[in-house]
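seq as requested:
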Amino acid sequence: MAIIPGSEIRRVVTTHDASGKAVVLIDAITPHKATRPDSGTTGRKIWATETVPAEMTGSKDRATLPGGIAPPDGGTVFRVVDFPPETDAVRNLPPDHLSKMIGHDHHAPAKVRPPRHSQMHRTRTIDYAIVLAGEIDMLLDDSEVHLKAGDVLVQQATNHAWVNRGKETCRIAFILIDGVEPVT
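C-alpha cells:
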C-alpha cells in the first residue's frame, strides 16, 4: 500500500501486562493531530519520552506529554508531519514568523542566525527525518537541500525551514532527541 500524505496514521504501541507478557497497549488512529493555521502543515504526534533511557512500563499514552516542536527536557518525540505545497501567503509572512510562533524556550539554541524564510526555526535537538512521500526542500542559512521519498536526514540543531515547492503534499517522519547547546 502506498503512503498517502494527509491520510490518518494507525499507531500500534506495545507494552507488558502485569505478568510480563508482551501485549498491545494501543491500536488506533492517532488522535494527537495539530494543524498550523498559517501554513496548513499538519503534525501527528506518535509518541514521546521524558528521559533517555526511556521509561517503558505502564499504560500511559505518552503522546499526551506536553510540548511543541521540541521534545521534553532530556526526552524524545516522534511525529509524522504533512507539508502541503507552499502558498504565496506563507512565502510573504515575515522571515521570523515561525521562530516567534514556536517561541524561544529552553530548546532553542542561544545562538540563532537571522531567518531567511517565514518557516525558519531551530531547536536544540538531534532530528532524524525520513521522507515517506513526496519531495521537499530544506533551507539552511545560505544553502538548501532537495529531499525526496526514501531520503533520510540527520540534523544537528541547525537553523532550517521546510519548503514544499511541488504540487503534492510531502510526508516526513521525525524523531527529535533533546540535546546540548551547540558549540558554534
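The chain has one domain: 32-178.
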